[in-house]
Each structure stands twice: as structure tokens, then as C-alpha cells.
Write a sequence for this structure.
């Protein structure tokens, strides 16, 4: 009943604030959220459609915008699976085995979240840029990483690195290793056990991690702007394209392209809410099952 | 590195992959910063980071981040409380929208806030008559940092507020405490570790923020130039040593914050009896 306490206790005097305080606090909270979150979100679409539907579609069909859309999709298609695979491997090693340095490893996985996006871009310039550690070697072999797509992919992988691993580690730590050990004892092969036992248990956490990772990969600006070089049609992702248009005072076009990213953000929020609900329901069902069996 | 007690397969494979991937993507690239700074030498490094323009940018970054985290501490606290404890129409939608700053690309947030707070913008036009400059001022930077930091405070506090045992409040009330005593003696002491963590996370995020700030800042040296922006400026001038030095200090600051936050989390977990 823990989740219902607020509804049932609100009526009791002394266990909640006086009505006038409740109304005042709710009003403050809503006004703050409207001013800081709702109005900016609405404003993006108002500006995007300022000059009508055709101006909006023109901005999105523009060759530069199209190239930015496809580059953004390519970058996400490369970086998200890489980080998802890493997330599964890291979560398996960390939550299913005991070894020294486990805590340090878990902290190191979160490290990219603590690093400024600009610094994230800069470190790849220092590795692969002209004057970087591998710069001369790359130059000799006519390979380009910085101011090219590989650099953008690397920077994106860096900033979206922890999402899947984090979600999976939390859930797999909580679920424990007994089920897998039982499956292993009963003769299941590694893959059978992973696909039939582990995956169903962590499905929602995995999906949630992938959604967050994708949103960040498609929307990253700071790190990508350091390594992109802004070669139009070649190294401009959607956020970079938004910046270029805005700095050229093409505000309507800039907001039109930005609206695509805003739609992506809203879709992310909706999917996250659905996944969260499914996950809660699955948890509730799993908790109910043993008690029913006992009865 | 031997597994002590596990009959499960895949330890070597997954741990090796994890370590190699972590080293290649995160650790090796990050070591370029201290290495570059050592190569530069401490004297030269010190000269770069004590340059008045760099000092001004650090001061602005830390100051604006601190103020923004405080604003988020107050309003994020109220929002978390209202969302968990009160029932009103639209609560679920409001709850989902809290994460918007996480989901919305920072560049989009940046151009939107800049247009809203520009002197002729929706919000800026009400500030201009009072001589208050929204966009292109430290105030604008702070507004952008409030935007990106808000979910940290709300999302850290929400679960702690919903775990708060109502029986504790009932006991206090039945012992004769009035509501304000309950809030200040029972509820707030219980919430404040989580509050500090949320505050710290918002602060840490704001220190390194770039995308949402670059448009609204105005980027005037000594006045509205944040540290991440100064790194980019140095890079565009091919001053790699300068960029690396400023970044090194910023990175060190992030590490200290990360360590403090980790410590806080351990302390809070013990306090709450997990």
C-alpha cells in the first residue's frame, strides 16, 4: 500500500500542509515548469512554422538538412550498438562475478558523464588531430579522423558510453545471479541461459538504456562540434546544422530543423514513460507470483 | 582477478571486452590531457590558467553554475514534493516532461532560450523595460544552466520522498508536533542528503555545459565567456596547449565533484539504512 499513502493521508489534518499552502506550492511548481519547460518546447514549433508549412518543409528538404539527417542516423547506428554491446558485457562481468577493482570499474564506466562535452571532443583531437599522438601516422596513410565522420562517431560513443551499462548493472545487481546459476546447473549453455533467463529479466532496462543512448547520440552537440569541422553536407549532424543556420540568422529554418530534434525528444519521453510502466507491471507480476504459489 | 564463487560462464570474455573498450574509448583519450599538461610544464600551465581572462571564465562558470544549482535546489525540491505528495489533473504529463532537458539536444535548448530571453523575445520584452538583460548576460547563462540542471534535483528527490514512511509523520503528529515541526524536524533531515546529491549533480553538469550556454552567453571575454567556450575559442585559434590546460583544470574540478558525490551517496545510503 506504500504507493497509495499520499492519496489516503491527504485528508488527515496534521499529516499534510494546510490547503492554502498546498495550492500555493502546486501553483509555484506548475508556473516554474511552464516557464522553463513547456514554453520553450512550444516556442520551437511556433518559430518553426512562423512562415507557414511550405517554408517548414523547404527547410527540412534542403540538401544540407537531408545530409545532416542521414549523418545523424549513421552516427547513431554505429555508436548505439557498440555501447549496447559494451553495456551487456560490462553488466555481466560486474554483476555475475566477484573480482578486485569492481567498484573502481563501475565508477570509471560513469566517468564520461562527469566530463564536459567540449573536453570529450578535445581529447580525440589530441589523439587523432594533426598534432595529436596518432596525427602524423594518420596523415602519412591519408586517413582522416578529426573533421571527418570517424571522429564524430568516436566523440558520440564517448558521451553516450554509460547509458546502457548503467541501467543494466542496476537491474542485474538487484535481480541476483541465482536464476542463471540454476539454469547453468541444469545444463543450459551460456547462450541459452543468456537468451532465456537473463534477457527476459533485463529486457525493459536494456530498452530504456538504448532509448537514452540513442537520444544522446543523435542530439550531442558540444563534443561533436569540436571534432566536426562543419564541412557542410559532410560532417554536419542535425545539431550542428541547427547551429549553422542560427548563426546565419536563418532563424525559421534553424527552428524547423530543431523541431525534428524536439520531436525526437518528445518521442524519447513518451517511450521512456511507456517502458517505465511496463517495467513496473512486470516487477509487480514477478513479486506477486511467489506469494500466490505459497497460498 | 579470479572469480571466487560463480559457476557462470563468460567471465574472461566479458571482462576483457569491458576493459579493452573502456580503455580505448575513455581512459586512453582522457590521459592525453594530463600528459599534454605535463609536457607543457607546470610553469607554463600555471601562466595559462592564471591569465585574467581564464580566471574570469572560471569564476563565471562556477558562479553561474552555483546560482543555477541553488535555484534548482529550491524549485526542484518544491516540484518533487508536489509531484509525489499532491494529486492534481495533468500530474502524469508534468512528471514525464521533467526529463525534457535530458532528452532535448542542448543546441536546441540554447537557441530556444536565447530567442525567448532576447530583448524582443517572449520573456525578454518584459525584462527590457526594467533594464534587465536576459540573453547575452550572466543572467542568461544562469537561466540556461537552470534548464539543464532541473531534472537532477527532481529525479534524485522523488524516490526518497515516496519512500518516506508516513508512519514517522503520524508518530510525530500524535506526539503533539505541528506540521511545521514535522517538516523541519522529521522530513527535511531525512531528505537533505538526497537534496545535496541532486544539487551536486546539477552543479557538476552545469560546470561543463556548452551547447545550451554558447548561444545565450554572448561570449564577451571577461564578461560572459564560460570555461567550455574559452576552450573552443582557443581551439579555433589553434592554441592547443591553452585549450588543453583550461580543459585539464575543468576535468580536475569534475573529478573532485564526482568523488564528493560518490562519498555523499555512500553517506546517504548508510544514513537511510540501505
Amino acid at each position: 500500500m506504500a504507493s497509495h499513502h499520499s492519496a489516503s493521508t491527504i485528508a488527515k489534518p496534521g499529516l499534510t500542509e494546510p490547503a492554502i499552502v498546498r495550492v500555493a506550492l502546486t501553483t509555484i511548481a506548475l508556473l516554474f515548469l511552464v516557464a522553463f519547460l513547456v514554453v520553450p518546447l512550444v516556442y520551437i514549433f511556433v518559430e518553426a512554422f512562423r512562415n507557414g508549412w511550405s517554408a517548414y518543409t523547404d527547410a527540412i528538404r534542403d540538401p544540407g538538412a537531408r545530409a545532416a539527417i542521414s549523418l545523424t542516423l549513421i552516427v547513431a547506428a554505429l555508436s548505439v550498438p557498440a555501447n549496447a554491446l559494451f553495456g551487456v558485457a560490462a553488466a555481466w562481468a560486474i554483476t555475475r562475478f566477484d573480482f578486485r577493482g569492481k567498484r573502481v570499474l563501475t565508477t570509471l564506466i560513469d566517468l564520461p558523464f562527469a566530463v564536459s562535452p567540449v573536453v570529450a571532443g578535445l581529447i580525440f583531437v589530441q589523439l587523432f588531430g594533426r598534432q595529436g599522438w596518432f596525427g602524423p601516422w594518420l596523415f602519412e596513410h591519408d586517413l582522416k579522423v578529426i573533421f571527418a565522420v570517424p571522429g564524430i562517431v568516436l566523440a558520440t560513443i564517448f558521451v553516450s558510453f554509460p547509458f546502457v551499462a548503467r541501467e543494466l548493472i542496476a537491474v542485474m545487481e538487484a535481480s541476483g545471479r541465482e536464476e542463471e546459476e540454476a539454469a547453468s546447473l541444469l545444463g543450459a549453455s551460456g547462450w541459452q541461459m543468456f537468451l532465456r533467463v537473463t534477457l527476459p529479466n533485463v529486457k525493459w532496462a536494456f530498452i530504456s538504456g538504448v532509448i537514452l543512448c540513442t537520444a544522446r547520440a543523435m542530439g550531442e552537440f558540444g563534443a561533436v562540434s569540436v571534432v566536426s569541422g562543419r564541412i557542410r553536407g559532410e560532417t554536419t549532424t542535425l545539431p550542428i546544422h541547427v547551429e549553422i543556420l542560427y548563426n546565419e540568422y536563418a532563424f525559421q529554418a534553424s527552428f524547423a530543423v530543431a523541431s525534428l530534434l524536439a520531436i525526437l525528444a518528445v518521442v524519447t519521453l513518451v517511450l521512456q514513460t511507456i517502458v517505465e510502466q511496463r517495467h513496473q507491471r512486470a516487477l509487480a507480476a514477478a513479486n506477486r507470483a511467489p506469494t500466490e504459489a505459497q497460498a | 582477478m579470479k572469480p571466487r564463487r560463480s559457476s557462470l560462464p563468460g567471465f574472461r570474455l566479458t571482462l576483457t571486452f569491458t576493459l579493452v573498450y573502456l580503455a580505448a574509448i575513455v581512459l586512453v583519450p582522457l590521459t592525453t590531457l594530463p600528459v599534454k599538461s605535463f609536457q607543457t610544464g607546470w610553469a607554463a600551465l600555471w601562466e595559462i590558467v592564471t591569465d585574467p581572462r581564464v580566471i574570469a571564465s572560471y569564476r563565471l562558470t562556477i558562479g553561474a553554475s552555483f546560482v543555477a544549482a541553488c535555484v534548482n535546489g529550491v524549485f526542484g525540491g518544491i516540484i518533487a514534493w508536489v509531484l509525489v505528495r499532491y494529486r492534481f489533473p495533468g500530474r502524469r504529463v508534468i512528471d514525464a516532461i521533467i526529463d525534457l532537458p535530458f532528452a532535448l539536444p542542448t543546441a536546441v535548448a540554447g537557441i530556444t532560450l536565447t530567442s525567448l530571453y532576447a530583448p524582443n523575445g517572449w520573456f525578454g520584452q518584459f525584462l527590457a523595460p526594467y533594464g534587465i538583460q536576459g540573453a547575452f548576460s550572466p543572467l542568461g547563462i544562469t537561466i540556461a544552466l537552470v534548464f539543464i540542471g532541473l531534472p537532477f534535483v527532481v529525479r534524485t528527490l522523488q524516490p526518497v520522498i515516496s519512500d518516506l514512511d508516513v508512519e514517522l509523520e503520524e508518530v510525530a503528529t500524535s506526539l503533539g508536533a505541528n506540521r511545521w515541526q514535522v517538516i523541519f524536524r522529521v522530513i527535511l533531515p531525512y531528505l537533505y542528503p538526497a537534496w545535496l546529491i541532486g544539487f551536486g549533480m546539477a552543479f557538476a553538469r552545469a560546470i561543463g555545459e556548452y551547447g545550451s550556454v554558447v548561444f545565450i552567453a554572448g561570449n564577451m571575454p571577461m564578461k560572459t565567456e564560460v570555461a567550455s567556450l574559452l576552450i573552443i575559442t582557443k581551439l579555433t585559434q589553434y592554441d592547443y596547449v591553452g585549450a588543453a590546460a583550461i580543459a585539464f583544470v575543468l576535468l580536475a574540478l569534475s573529478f573532485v565533484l564526482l568523488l564528493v558525490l560518490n562519498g555523499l551517496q555512500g553517506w546517504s545510503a548508510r544514513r537511510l539504512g540501505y
About this structure: Residues 248 and 254 of chain A are 9 Å apart (CA to CA). The radius of gyration of chain A is 24 Å. DSSP finds 14 helices and no strands in chain A.
